[in-house]
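To the structural biology subgroup,

Please find below the input and predicted structure for Alpha/beta hydrolase, which we are adding to the shared reference set this quarter. The sequence is reproduced verbatim from the submission form. If anyone notices a discrepancy with their own records, reply to this email rather than editing the shared folder directly, so we keep one authoritative version.
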Amino acid sequence: MADGRGRLNGETRPVTAAVMLIHGAWLTPRAWDRFKARYEGRGLTVVAPAWPLLDAPAEELRGLSPRTLGRLTLDAVVEAHAAHAVAMVEPPILIGHGLGGLIVQRLLDGGCGACGVAIASTPPLGLLARPRAAWALRRLAARWSGATLLPPEGFAELFAQTLPEDERRLAYVEHVVPAPARVVRQALLGPGGGAARATRRRPPLLLIAGDEDRMAPPAMVAAAARHQRRAASRTDLQCFSGRSHWLCNEPGWEDVADFALDWALANGRAALPGQAPKG
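Predicted structure (tokenized):
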């Protein structure tokens, strides 16, 4: 198994060798295929659970009734991932992308996980800036339920503008599915507990940004880092140049994957005694 050592209050402790990857809105666990294979190649145990109702191939999910997906809430997604983490043999390293990064922050606030990495994360409630993603927000803000499929032009403009057109079309077909509008609305606008509380004794957190990201611009990720630094726990920020919101799959994704894991193995820690994971 891969190994790392971390420090907590001056004491060196073994760091977990289990990883849980959490996908974001409009995607499925397949968005983590590259990270999962790379981490397993380093001897780690890796899981990438789907959000509730989204455990199916992309083509099947695109045919689901919007009403079916519209029942899902942000709290239900957080609680489902907390249950997955609790079921693992050891507290996992939590790595999330987009709205999955916000879920990581929520889980850490509840004492869940050895540490967390939030990549191109949706910001905690109240920190929403004015990125070009306002286009998607306006569409979702008018809905309390249902689901919205990001159109190809939206994916091209907001997610993966750095990809060549042929690669972008293939990525869209393989990965993009409808997003439960209620989950996204609750995360961005409330109600529903989108806020991350920056709990004083939460596990360590790394936030990663891409300087070409239009969904989670660097300034917005930096604002989230400032918010999280209210906690006494370690909070770090890393920005990768020339990367879009698709930085976990575009050329150079290996650098992001390796930086995230190396940081986690160096800075993670065991769950605090007496602190039960919760959403």
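Summary notes: The first helix runs from residue 33 to 41. The mean pLDDT is 84.

Regards,
Lab coordination
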